[in-house]
Design a protein that fits this description.
With about 325 residues, the protein is α/β, with parallel strands linked by helices. The chain has ten helices and 13 strands. A five-stranded mixed sheet has the order 1-7-6-4-5, with helices on both faces. A four-stranded mixed sheet has the order 8-13-12-11, sandwiched between helices. Strands 2-3 form a two-stranded antiparallel ribbon. Helix 3 packs across helix 4. It binds acetyl coenzyme *A (ACO).
Length: about 325
């Protein structure tokens, strides 16, 4: 059995904030942000626009793209670190918003690695026969947990959502199958302090603000992403030359570039959207994927490598034949 992607979709809030706009608020510049990160602009959710609104819009687009309706879906899984509320899950809100009446819905929290985790989880649900068609979503409103006075972090992130629909289909068991071919997940809580939010229900009873040791996160990212990419390729039995696209977590162009170089992959084969979206955490991979599918770059049968790292530290990679 394989978890095969039937379609994808994304949603970006209307408001676009340029680097120059941020430079009017904190001591930064377009030149600094572009040189250090590759980011030129990001979308920011409107007042009152919640993560579940973004997630539902992306989910609706993915269902439409797959030619399916709410009655066809039996599970909704959402990766997010910025839920609407501490509980209930954002996924149950999305389930309701989309008119999905059966099955189950829940959230997964692995911050920027969230989409790899939720994809691995949905793949497990399909392989174990617990669900046949799953709406898999990454959605975030990081603008809500940013300290807008901290120039080292507020310039990096944006809001958005991306979604794919997975369906249980029979495959041959080899790397030529369509669908999820393999996933590898890792985490190491020894690095909690490198990237965290300074609050939470059981500590401060507030949501808190994002805090980060940028240079340290960068160092771990380049090494761990290349390692986990090689691990998943070895697990599936493919090599870098078999890949059609890398769809990386969009944190920073320099991390994306350094990881591609470590894998000896040309940047022509890497989907890059960080310039337009900033870092949208768990939403970044499905957003980049959906944009590349819309542009006709990713086509059915293409072999995609996805990789991500974030707070935890938590990281992982997945191979998916589109
Ligand atoms: N504008 C201007 N100057 C700034 C800004 C800014 N927005 N932010 C920091 N600086 C200054 C610092 O204060 C510092 O000044 P100093 O030398 O006078 O002390 C100088 O720039 C260099 O700061 P560093 O933090 O060393 O800059 P670095 O080259 O490491 O770039 C960055 C910072 C972009 C955050 C980088 O470390 C990075 O990309 N790290 C990865 C973090 C990341 O992407 N996290 C996202 C979440 S995890 C993930 O998704 C992978």
């Amino acid at each position: 059995m394989r978890a095969v992607a039937l379609g994808c979709g994304h949603y970006l809030p209307e408001r676009v904030v340029s680097n120059d706009e941020l430079a009017a608020q904190v001591d930064t510049s377009d030149e600094w942000i572009v040189a250090r990160t590759g980011i030129r602009r990001r979308h920011i959710a409107a007042e009152g626009e919640k993560t579940s609104d973004l997630a539902a819009a992306a989910g609706r687009a993915a269902l439409e793209n797959a030619g399916l309706g709410p009655e066809d879906i039996d599970a909704v899984v959402v990766a997010t670190a910025t839920p609407d509320q501490t509980f209930p899950s954002t996924a149950t809100r999305v389930q309701h918003a989309l008119g999905i009446k059966r099955g189950f819905a829940y959230d997964i929290q692995a911050v920027c690695a969230g989409f790899i985790y939720v994809l691995a989880n949905a793949n497990g649900l399909i392989l174990s026969g617990q669900a046949k068609r799953i709406l898999v979503i990454g959605a975030e409103t990081f603008s809500r947990i940013l300290d807008w006075d901290d120039r080292a972090t507020c310039v990096l992130f944006g809001d958005g959502a991306g979604a794919i629909v997975l369906e249980a289909q029979e495959g041959d068991g080899g790397p030529a199958d369509r669908g999820v071919l393999g996933t590898c997940l890792h985490s190491d809580g020894a690095y909690n302090d490198l990237l965290y939010v300074s609050g939470g229900p059981s500590t401060t009873q507030t949501a808190g603000f994002l805090r980060m040791e940028g240079r340290e996160v960068f160092r771990h990212a380049v090494v761990k992403l290349a390692d986990v990419a090689e691990e998943v390729m070895e697990k599936v039995g493919v090599g870098p030359t078999d890949l059609d696209w890398i769809v990386p977590h969009q944190a920073n162009l320099r991390i994306i570039d350094a990881t591609a170089r470590k894998l000896s992959m040309s940047m022509d084969k890497v989907v890059v959207t960080v310039q337009d979206h900033g870092n949208t955490s768990a939403a970044s991979i499905p957003l980049a994927l959906s944009v590349a599918v819309d542009e006709g770059r990713i086509r059915p049968g293409d072999l995609l490598l996805m990789e991500a790292i974030g707070g935890g530290l938590a990281w992982g990679a997945a191979l998916l034949r589109w």
